[in-house]
Amino acid sequence: MTAEDHKNEGKIDRGRYAEERRVQEKMAAVEAEDSKTYFSRELLIWYDRSKRDLPWRRHRDPYFIWVSEIMLQQTRVDTVIPYFNRFIERFPTIRDLAEAPQEDVVKMWEGLGYYSRARNLQAAAQQIVELHGGQMPSEREHVFALKGVGPYTAGAILSIAFNRPEPAVDGNVLRVLSRYFLIEDDIAKPKTRIMMEKMIPELIPEGRASDFNQALMELGALICTPKSPHCLICPVMEHCRGRIEGRERDLPVKTKAKKPRPEQRLAVLLEGSGERAGRVLVRRRPNTGLLAGMWELPHVAAGGEDLGLDAAQLGELLEDRGLSWSPMSPYMTAEHTFSHIHWTMRVLIAREEPEALAQLAAESGVPYEAAVPEAAELDGAEGIANDGADEEWRWISREDMSAIAFPNLFLNILNKYFSGEGEQE
Question: Do residues 204 and 210 lie in contact, with contact meaning Cβ atoms separated by under 8 Å?
């Protein structure tokens, strides 16, 4: 074979290779398109047959959908259902929510946690009343402009309520897409979420945006679960690349979040005496910051090493209120984790003793009146964020708890106390 023959044969081989590669790429593209079509079709078939009967799905009311989506953030569906029903019964329209006292709104949210959600929800309702006549807007820019509404919530409202082909990417969706398409990018990074938001409109069948986004979330919640995906009953298992490659338990890739910062706190459960027998002392937090405007037991930051020193600091807080009390003794310890803080709350118990101050007053010749904390000022106390506003203190009974809102941590402590379940350590 001549050199020219070898040269021609090389050209033929390169041409054949290039053609084979074009064919492979075309087949891969067709297969990918088929995979997407299969995913959307089978997902909707499954959803139409198996979707859960949830109260916010019985109507296409944008307000109901909005409230449910805010409640479902960081909270399980089973937990949300009774809260949603009570909330809608109390505030059946956006205008009712906008015009309600904020404390009523927070009280209806009591137990769900992340209370800024409730305050933002009401602020957004007030925006809607002022700018849109009390009707949920359907324009993208107007929905995004609402207080507390981010990309996910806006996408959920626009797609579920108005059937717009908008992405609504939450943790369930990130997990499902990572596994099905074998996406190994870190879902904790914004660029990964943005990439998946761009994928969603390509997957939504014409006219089925509402059902498709709900189906995607439903699949993640019920089948494609975080730790033990139920691949054998998954409607899209046949083309799931994560399952095919045996990677379903490795995905999605997610860097671990920073652990909440531990904080030691010391609280006092001060029992009333005389006319205030059967009541305990609580205070209202400032209107900004953590647990804004909610009620709690008086407490301070604690070092955790010297209980006597920490108790003295707590005592100064009560002395500033003109109170005296019996010796404090350990009552219980409770814990609560916020998104960025973990509180270990050691609770002491004591009884109000106004007679002690009255006796001291008599000896000194200075008239004494027992303090009745209502709304006196307490500035710069240890462990209390101060925004310049007066703080309100109250003596409350068990019945009073139905009218004011407490964070879960203090709600549980007080419920145990009033029910007699709490025991001294």
Answer: no
Residue 30 has pLDDT above 50, yes or no: no
- Do 71 and 220 fall within a single domain? yes
Cβ atoms within 10 Å of 398's Cβ, excluding its own:
14
Rounded Cα distance between 165 and 156, Å, is 10
Question: How far apart are the C-alpha atoms of 123 and 137, rounded to whole Å?
Answer: 15
Q: Is the domain of 275 the same as that of 160? A: no
CATH number, domain with residue 167: 1.10.340.30
Q: What is the domain count for the chain?
A: 2
Q: Please indicate, yes or no, whether residues 350 and 313 belong to a single structural domain of this protein.
A: yes
Question: CA-to-CA distance for 87 and 80, rounded, in angstroms?
Answer: 10
Indicate the SS3 state at residue 417.
helix
We report the CATH number of the domain holding residue 357 as 3.90.79.10
Tell me how far apart the alpha carbons of residues 15 and 3 are, in angstroms, rounded to a whole number: 19
Residue 415 dihedral angles phi and psi, to the nearest 5° = -60, -40
pLDDT at 366: 39
pTM exceeds 0.85? no
* Residue positions annotated with a catalytic role: 69
Residue with tokens 């006196």: 376
> What is the token pair recorded at 193?
């979420």
**Phi, psi for residue 60 in degrees, rounded to 5:** -100, 30
